[in-house]
């Protein structure tokens, strides 16, 4: 999919996505505002089991609408929590941010935005053969969402952020050989909300079990500033390669879906 088809500016922004991507009009769309008083108690769920691989080569990519780290098929797995007995493999993780601090998260909590949101995208490898196949199924994907607030520099995330100057333009890609533990991107406390939703970028497929961690993690203002310097166009666009100042989709109605709350108030 070429980036001209959709983006985050006026001419190709989220309000236009439904014209080209009919699924974006559905009743199971994401993100949503989490109204904490209306979330139902999930009771007890088994703990998550994170079986993430640390020592392997990853790719850091600028697809034109975020930065993304591809796990390149290494076996990093998540199971437990609300996911039942199925094993979900970590495919990639990426970030959403805003033009200024205090906005940039996709999900909001009681109307409050955060300065960014990390998404760790997993696919159901118990039921499906590939990420692509899983991405079209209602129980195909599980995305862990981590809210970012401005504070101290995040050391583990910095392994990615310091590579961003090398992937300034759409299509740029570098290899990261430094060990990194995706678990270190998560907050200490694994309390969360969960609901059925969609990808937040076109084609907005309704295949995601969302797991939003309640406790935000800190990143520095400098780290966020480096994200905003990424460009959504190719190097050949020259000055036309605009900075990717913000890349979050506004919230959509929860509708009849149940938001479940698992602990940690
Ligand atoms: Zn995302």
TrEMBL record:
Region (Disordered): 1-24
Cofactor or coenzyme needed: Zn(2+)
Stretches assigned to the Alpha-carbonic anhydrase domain: 4-263
Reaction it catalyzes: hydrogencarbonate + H(+) = CO2 + H2O
Entry keyword set: Lyase, Metal-binding, Zinc
SMART domains with a match to the protein in the record: Carb_anhydrase
Protein name: Carbonic anhydrase
